[in-house]
């Protein structure tokens, strides 16, 4: 008798483990109902947009951060010998945000130093704008995705409460499963998308700040070059 009970318990336990192992993300999403599926689909689109922006900006900023350690020495040599055209050609060949600022400053040589500084600052704002293109969208997704997930949570709770109200006093956990699946899956999905987007945004901000610092350093070095006595 005891052996039979143990065998039955073992079979039930193995069936439960088997059912647990077959539970998949796809099944969770499908069991969440139409409302949950729509929200999950929206979050997947936001994740795809966030990944695209991140990798596009990452490679763009990486290309912009490449600098030639001998660049300013060559600029110094060209400017000190009055070879402004050669200096402009060098800036065009380097083709980086810092070289664009230097090229703008070279084109203003002969004018008051304040005008040169203003031209460099204006060019710098444009370069920073190019570096930060679409990065703010990542911040928006990082903030909006969890809220969209919480919206799914509210929808799921409404569905669950509606089922309870229509149950006529006979509450079954299966009856509430759609609402609970919607609430839980959308919350998890929203948090995942939000966390990924937030990390991506901060990483791009850090890399952008490094490029901006490099631009400022080379601009100051160029202005110091113009202030040097002939």
Automatic annotation (TrEMBL):
It is a multi-pass membrane protein. The chain crosses the membrane at residues 34-55, 135-161, 181-201. One of its GO terms (biological process) is protein import. GO terms for cellular component: plasma membrane. The keyword Aminoacyl-tRNA synthetase does not apply. Its main location: membrane. Belongs to the exbB/tolQ family. This is Outer membrane transport energization protein ExbB.
